[in-house]
Every structure is written in C-alpha cells, then in structure tokens.
C-alpha cells in the first residue's frame, strides 16, 4: 500500500486499446490498496499534428495561443482514461493542469513549475478517487494556460509526486529502464537497477532520451524516488534515487553517444584578454548555445579556439565565426560536422583517479583519435570522428566492465 | 463604433482557410472602430468525432469526462483564430469558458449558464484586444468543465453579449437569416428582416435550426438584440428583437414543418378522473416528452386520448401505451409514424381572430386532412399526413401572404 504517481507517455496512450491497458495497470495498483495519481501525455504524434495545424494558421504561431492548442492533447487522453476507469466502476476524476494546481511562470511553451497547489488532488485521493492529471500543462499566475515543453509530462509527474509526498513516481515508457548504453549500438548493454540523480542527469543531458532533463533536476531537488519501467511488462525497471555509498563501488555507470554536435575551430587567435569574450559574446547574442570550449596554447602569442554547437545552430555559428575571425585577426576557421561526443558517466569517478587513463587507452587500442576532451566531476567526454562513434561506445562499455554477462 | 459579439458556427470554422475568413470579418469590424468579442464553435464534424472517440472508450461515457473531451473542440478553434489575428498584427487573446468567467450549473453535457463573470473580457476589451472565446463551454462552481449542449455556442454568445451589454450579438451562419419557411420546401420563402423573440422561440422549438432554443430564451430574458446573418456575404440578415408595435401588422411571420413526431391514440378510455394522470405519468416515468395531447369526447362515458412524441421515443412510448391500455381498460392502441406537424407563427394572431379559419380553409382547399390541432397564443399547429407536409407548407405560405414577390 503506497501513494504512487504513475506517468504514461505518448506510445503508452497511442490509441484506445493502449489507454485501456493503462487502465489495467492503474486499477491493478489501486486494487492492491495503492492510492494512485496518473499523469498522461498526449497520444503519440498528436502534439506534432497540432504544431502542424498551428503552422498552417501562422508561420510563427503565437506562443500563448500555441499552448492553448497543445494543451488539448493531454486533455483528450486524461478524459478518455477517466471515462474508461469510470466505465469499469472505479471512482476517477480527470484534472487539467490548472485544475490540478500546477502553477508555472509565464514562459509560454517552456514554462517552469513554480508551485503545485495539490489540495484538490489530495482531497480526491482522500475520497478514494483515482486522479488522472493531464501532463505537460499548467497555468500561470494570471490564469493563462502554459505548457512545459517537450517531455514536460515527466516533469508534471515528478512535481506532483513531490507535492503530495508520493512514495514513488513511476515513469512508464516503451523501454525496460535506463541502460548502461544504447542497446541498439551495443548488444551487451545492461539495464541499470539503481542510478543516482546526478548520473541520470548527465545521461539525460548527453542524449539518453528516457527521462526529460528537467524532471531529473526536479526529482533531485525534491528527492523524489523515480522508477523508470516498461508499460509493456511487469519487470522492475531502473530506480533513480539519491546517491548512496554502494553506488561508488561502480566506477562508470553508463556510456553515451551524441552525434548532434558540430565543431568549429578559429586558428591563430591573438592570445589577448577579451578575445574569448568577443567570440562567445557574438554567439550568445545570436542565441547559440555552445557546449564544449577548448583553447590550446600555441607559441608566439597565438592560440587556437575550438568549440562545439548543436548541428541545428551550426550554419549560423559558422557565419558568425567567419565575421568574428576577420575582426580579431584569426587566420582561419575550420569546421567539422562529422563528429560524435562519446562520454562515460559515473559517481565512482569522484574517488577513482584512473578513469580518464582507462578511457584514453581503450580508445587508442582501436586507433580512435580523440579531437576534444571535456570533463565534469562525474563525466568524461571525448569528441571523435562520427564513423568511430559506435565502436568507441562498445570498446568503452567493455573497458569499464559494463558488458552483460553471457547467459 | 459598437460593442459587438460575433459568433461563428462549425461550418464557418471548418478549416484553416475558413478561420482566416473569420479573421477577415472580425478585423473589418475592429478596423471600423468596433470592440469585438468573438465566440467560436468547434470545426464542423469535430464534436461528432470526439463523441465517437468517447464511445470507443466507454459504451456510456461519463458525462463529466465527456465534457472535458468535447471542450477541446472549441479550445482548438479559439487558439487558431487568436494565432491568425496576432499573426496579422492585431492584439488578440483566446479565453476558454472558465477563463471567460462562464459559470454554469453542474449538469454536465447540458449545463445552464448561471452567471458570467465578465471582468476579464471587459479588461481585455479596454486594452483594445480582440477577445476570442471558446463557445459551448463553461465551468461549474467547483471548477469542473461543463458544456452547454448542442448549439451551445449560440447561448455562450448571447450570454456574453448580455453580460458586457453589447450593442448586438451577431450570429454568423451558413444561411442568410431567418426565413418565412424552409426555402428547400417553398421556393417563395422570404428572408425576414425583423422578428420578435417570441416568434423566433416558437420557430426554433418547431424545428427552424438557425438558432438554438435556449439562446433565444436568453436573448428574450435579457433583451439582447440578435442579428442572424451569413458568414459568406455582407448582406443584412434577420434582427431578432423585442416585440414592437409595427410587428403586429403582420398576422403570420412564418410557417414551419416538423416531421420528427409520431402519434399514438388510446381508444375508448374510460372517462374518469385520474385516467390521464395514469397514462402520462407512466410516460413521464420513462423520461418520454409528450408534445401535443388531444382528448376527444365520445358518448357513453368513454373517450379517445391522442398524443405525439418524438420519433426516437416512439417505440418505447408504444410499449408503455400497450401496458397502460390494458391496465385502464382502453380497447385499442392506434399508432401513426407518417405524420408531420405544420405550424403558422405570428405575433399578429393575438389581435386577429381569423387565423385558424384561414389555415383550415387553405388546407381544405388542397384536400389535406387535419388529424390534430394545437394552439398557443402566437401559434397554430396542425398534424397532417407526412406526404402532404410540403404541400401544406406551400399553401399556408401563400394563404398568409408570405410569398416573395416575383422579381
């Protein structure tokens, strides 16, 4: 008997039959004595369809009105699930974001949750209702409808779990949990049973799509135990929880690969104060997010500056770099689109000094050249040529002892 | 320069191009200096699609949750129109029923408006916004989403017009206005320039689909001038207004025809107190609405009781009548499905005694037999065989001088 938030994503509510399977799942928990709040996404594909519709109305749809439109997606699935539950004789009530008391800031399209006024949810739970909340949406302090951005239903679920002090927030998805790496790249990938918020956050940032980044930040901040598991079977998935002593015995928990970046190098930049500010100020003015930045020392008062941006910003970043290069007297701008960022992540790095060496040795053993390196407290990332990305993932997976044991 | 509510129905917002035409219409008024509140229905067909979706989830969808689902229809069109208006540089804001302050009772699916808290609408109007309200929906006092039933957007529009003291409530539709009769039946039907609330109400009740009955009741109660006009052209339509002296010069304003009823007769019912109560009590217990009731006096302490019900209730009403007939000792139950109710409506009847005679004479001139007659202060209805319905409409239209003059 537990207080649970259960979140189901778009593929889990893709059609009426799938929503009926969600109802099976939810009522099973309820019948076991659990109190359940269900958080739903829109049916798979619906949000994209609504965006297309908006784009046929306006080339740049007004963000407030786009939120009003997009909110219909989760409204639909929440109403349908509540109907199915009531049809089966359960007491259930759907709540839209504003009814569930999800208060956000005014940033239409990517609103941040400021507060959850959970009194209506808790009152319904006390009356033994299954509460079905439309995810992804809230309202700002003026009563406007807002949405939380892609994957926002994860954040809705974690935030509600935090507000009602749920025992667990279960995120049902189309995979079995969080894996040591992408199983499509490495057949020996293993499901991770338990992972810390910090590691999960690094993995989400580095492209593991299983949880939205902000939902992990929220879970970490409010210490909400998150259980990532499959909506297709009853297996235990991955628990995302606070760091604990036993976790540090594992040096590396996962390996990720991100092919969504491109590299730009400004050659022979004068090594003077303020030059970096000029380069990255110009990029920031154009709203371009820079990921890695490396500055190599050269002789003769000159240096090379290299950085990476997402592929979608690449063209614009190149144009700006050419202009800035002339301005500051850099000799050349070199670019590379065919790169991949391969990373190893693990809490154990904090107390283990040999991780970088192991990583570089493993890559060298396959003659994979490292172009850029960056590190955080629990992560090491190397940029390599894109064609080596999958090989790099597999060799690192083996090198850090992550391979699944043969059955 | 006027304060206007403009309501557009499903065919007027059927797709993005049609919604753009609505934007043309609205901005034209706005550019002329009018302050405008727009009320929209869902795209034509969408409400039916949502009902089918609900029926695939549950054989009898919960009414509260059905309202949550159906409300997405008007939410979609309101957001899209607001986007288009903003795209064209106008300040515009969409409001859902609950945001527009439309407070209803708790009757999900057929809620009645209790109050309009129009302060948000008026504040936006003062800031020169075009306010786009999702029709058909409101919220009850507990914050649940409710809907107003079929055609409810008309009622939303009239209620808002009343609350903000609009100069006029324009109902844009796919016809040019209210006609003296159905132009598909009678080619000489004329558009009525001005009609009283009372007449419009009778015509709506008798099957003229141009305005929802409750919207007319609302307009009458709060004295809201309603302008029914085409969304496809700029012609003046029909003004629905308070009764005025000049209206009584026209004896009959319109002729209607309703084929949606069926007739049941109980033969030789004992002419005793309480017998009618037994018959109609049993029908009422089964939630069957009875329209006309006629009791013919017969000799020998017996009488025939005839009544009409809608065709959808006919089968059930027959079963109940058979049971009741046995109970009370009636000899027979006769039924007729192929009937039509032809009515003439006009304020002028109040002060004109010859209307019934003219009606009966006109029908007799074509050998149309009258099976039942009922009257109100401003209406006379005759039930005739269905095959004569169109002929009856045309002959009455001519007899009361309604025919369009030849060009």
From TrEMBL, chains A, B:
Residues 264-341, 344-407 form the ACT domain. Coiled coil: none annotated. It catalyses: L-aspartate + ATP = 4-phospho-L-aspartate + ADP. Keywords: Amino-acid biosynthesis, ATP-binding, Kinase, Lysine biosynthesis, Nucleotide-binding, Transferase. Pathway: Amino-acid biosynthesis; L-lysine biosynthesis via DAP pathway; (S)-tetrahydrodipicolinate from L-aspartate: step 1/4; Amino-acid biosynthesis; L-threonine biosynthesis; L-threonine from L-aspartate: step 1/5; Amino-acid biosynthesis; L-methionine biosynthesis via de novo pathway; L-homoserine from L-aspartate: step 1/3. InterPro entries: AceGlu_kinase-like_sf, ACT-like_dom_sf, ACT_Aspartokinase, ACT_dom, AKii-LysC-BS, Asp/Glu/Uridylate_kinase, Asp_kin_monofn, Asp_kinase. The keyword Membrane does not apply. The keyword Kinase applies. GO terms for biological process: homoserine biosynthetic process; lysine biosynthetic process via diaminopimelate; threonine biosynthetic process. It holds the Pfam family ACT_9. One of its GO terms (cellular component) is cytosol. PROSITE patterns: ACT, ASPARTOKINASE. ATP binds at residues 7-10, 173-174, 179, 184, 209-210. PANTHER family: ASPARTATE KINASE, ASPARTOKINASE. Belongs to the aspartokinase family. This is Aspartokinase. The gene is lysC.
């Amino acid at each position: 008997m537990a207080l649970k938030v259960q979140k189901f994503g778009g593929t889990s509510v893709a059609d009426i039959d799938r929503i009926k399977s969600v109802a099976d799942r939810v009522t099973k928990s309820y019948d076991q004595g659990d109190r359940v709040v269900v958080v739903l996404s829109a049916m798979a594909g619906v949000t994209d369809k609504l965006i297309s519709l908006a784009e046929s109305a306006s080339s740049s749809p007004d963000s407030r009105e786009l939120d009003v439109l997009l909110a219909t997606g989760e409204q639909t699935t929440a109403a349908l699930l509540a109907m199915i539950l009531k049809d089966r004789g359960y007491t259930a009530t759907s709540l839209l974001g504003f009814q569930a008391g999800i208060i956000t800031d005014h940033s239409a399209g990517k609103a941040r949750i400021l507060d959850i006024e959970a009194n209506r949810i808790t009152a319904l739970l006390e009356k033994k209702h299954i509460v079905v909340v439309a995810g992804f949406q809230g309202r700002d302090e003026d009563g406007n409808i807002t949405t939380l951005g892609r994957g926002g239903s994860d954040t809705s679920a974690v935030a509600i779990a935090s507000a009602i002090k749920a025992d667990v927030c279960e995120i049902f998805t189309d995979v079995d949990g969080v894996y040591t790496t992408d199983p499509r790249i490495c057949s020996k990938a293993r499901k991770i049973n338990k992972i810390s918020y910090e590691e999960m956050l690094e993995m989400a940032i580095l492209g593991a799509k299983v949880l939205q980044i902000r939902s992990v930040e929220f879970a970490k901040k409010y210490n909400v135990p998150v259980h990532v598991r499959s909506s297709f079977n009853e297996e235990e998935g991955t628990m995302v929880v606070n760091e604990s002593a036993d976790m540090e015995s594992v040096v590396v928990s996962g390996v990720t690969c991100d092919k969504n970046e491109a590299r730009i190098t400004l050659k022979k930049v004068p090594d003077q104060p303020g030059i970096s500010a000029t380069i990255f100020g110009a990029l920031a003015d154009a709203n371009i997010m820079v990921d890695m930045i490396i500055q190599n020392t050269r002789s003769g008062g000159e240096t090379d500056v290299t950085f990476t941006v997402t592929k979608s910003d690449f063209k614009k970043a190149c144009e700006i770099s050419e202009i800035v290069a002339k301005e500051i007297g850099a000799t050349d701008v070199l670019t590379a689109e065919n790169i991949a960022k391969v990373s190893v992540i693990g809490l154990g790095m904090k107390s283990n000094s040999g991780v970088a060496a192991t990583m570089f040795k493993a890559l060298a053993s396959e003659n994979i050249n490292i172009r850029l390196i960056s590190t955080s407290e629990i992560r090491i990332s190397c940029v390599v040529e894109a064609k080596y990305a999958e090989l790099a993932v597999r060799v690192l997976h083996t090198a850090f002892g992550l391979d699944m044991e043969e059955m």
